[in-house]
Design goal:
By secondary structure, the chain is mainly α. It has one domain. It is built from five helices and no strands. The chain has helices at about 1-55, 60-75, 80-95, 95-105, 105-119. Helix 1 runs antiparallel to helix 2 and helix 2 (about 60-75) runs antiparallel to helix 3 (about 80-95).
């Protein structure tokens, strides 16, 4: 009887350890995924702004075409979920007026704006 109690305690401990390990692994993976998501978004924004800076005439159509071209490039990367890219593209499209105003002020203003937005 004493032997069964120890066995039960041991099994409960093992099960608790497995559950805690799984939960910990989930949160670590989730945080890593969030960081990687921010990294590609920052790179995509930088590429969009670099392309916009080289345009002679910035119109809403050229802005949207640039955003689409960059996001299409990132859709080919398998480690990024398609819905994340679509959400990013929607947010960038919605920022047209802000980006236009900032680009009229100069490229330095755009970079400062994005740093404030990341906080």
């Amino acid at each position: 009887m004493y032997h069964n109690e120890n066995q039960n305690k041991f099994l409960k401990g093992v099960i608790a350890g497995v559950v805690l390990g799984a939960v910990g692994g989930y949160f670590l993976h989730k945080n890593k995924r969030r960081i990687m998501s921010k990294v590609w978004m920052i790179k995509a924004k930088a590429e969009i702004y670099r392309r916009l800076g080289s345009l002679k005439d910035l119109t809403q159509e050229s802005y949207e075409n640039t955003v689409r071209a960059v996001t299409d490039k990132y859709k080919k990367v398998k480690s990024i979920a398609a819905h994340e890219i679509d959400e990013f593209a929607e947010r960038m499209m919605a920022r047209w007026k802000d980006v236009k105003a900032r680009m009229d002020e100069g490229p330095d203003e755009i970079e400062a704006y994005d740093v404030e937005e990341q906080k």
